[in-house]
Design brief:
Blueprint lengths: L2 H5 L3 H15 L6 E7 L5 E7 L2 E3 L2 E7 L3 H8 L2 E8 L4 E11 L2 H10 L2 H9 L9 H14 L11 E15 L7 E7 L5 E6 L2
Antiparallel strand pairs: 1-2, 1-5, 3-4, 4-7, 5-6, 6-7, 7-8, 8-9
Helix pairs in contact: 5-6
Length: about 200
């Protein structure tokens, strides 16, 4: 840990610094994060997806709202994120709640995706049973014919979520498993309180 990191008071600035270092060192998908949602009966569910935006408002990802995570977030807005960078021996844990991004934000990101990915958002009935791979390929061809050009509207069930963080933990591997753990928690005034945890 550097002195700057030890005294950092803005968890977003810390996140962006670590993300920039991860982007320079990780071989692929430095923005990959494990997303944990809460299902019926309090059962947790985890999967790895890609972060698509981060600013002082929160952390953004996109998905099919009919998917398992979409259904779980509809019923319970609590969420946890985990970034783990093996080369840097670091991880960041973020806990909070989600809100939907605006339609304009979802439209803009959807339009930036490759054509096949946009068609795939129509073709994939995400998280639902699939009898065989050929069925997905048949559905993709169906939408290729329906939308032959680049003008492919965003499906109504495809949208984005913004994670509004309430807690951060920055974890750094240290010798002899005496790891460094720094936490930030949202204060009542909207600012942040910080502290350390035993490893």
């Amino acid at each position: 840990m550097t002195d700057t990191e030890q005294t950092e008071t803005d968890p977003f600035a810390w996140f962006h610094r670590w993300m920039a270092e991860a982007e320079a060192t990780e071989p692929t998908d430095a923005n990959a994060m494990t997303v944990v949602t809460v299902g019926p009966g309090g059962k947790p569910s985890a999967r790895t997806i890609l972060l698509k935006g981060a600013d002082p408002r929160g952390f953004v990802f996109y998905t099919n709202t009919h998917s398992r995570k979409g259904r779980e977030l509809r019923d319970n807005a609590l969420i946890a994120l985990l970034f783990h960078w093996k080369i840097l021996a670091r991880q960041i844990r973020i806990e909070g709640k989600v809100e939907a991004v605006t339609d304009a934000e979802a439209d803009a990101y959807y339009a930036s995706r490759p054509r096949v990915s946009r068609l795939g958002a129509w073709a994939s009935d995400q998280s639902r049973p699939l009898s065989k791979r050929a069925e997905l390929e048949r559905r993709l061809k169906q939408f290729e014919e329906k939308f032959p050009g680049e003008d492919i509207p965003r499906p109504p069930h495809w949208h984005g979520y913004r994670v509004l963080p309430e807690r951060f933990e920055f974890w750094q591997n240290m010798p002899y498993r005496l790891h460094d753990r720094t936490i930030f928690e949202r204060a009542k005034d909207g600012g942040w309180t910080s502290g350390k945890l035993f490893p």
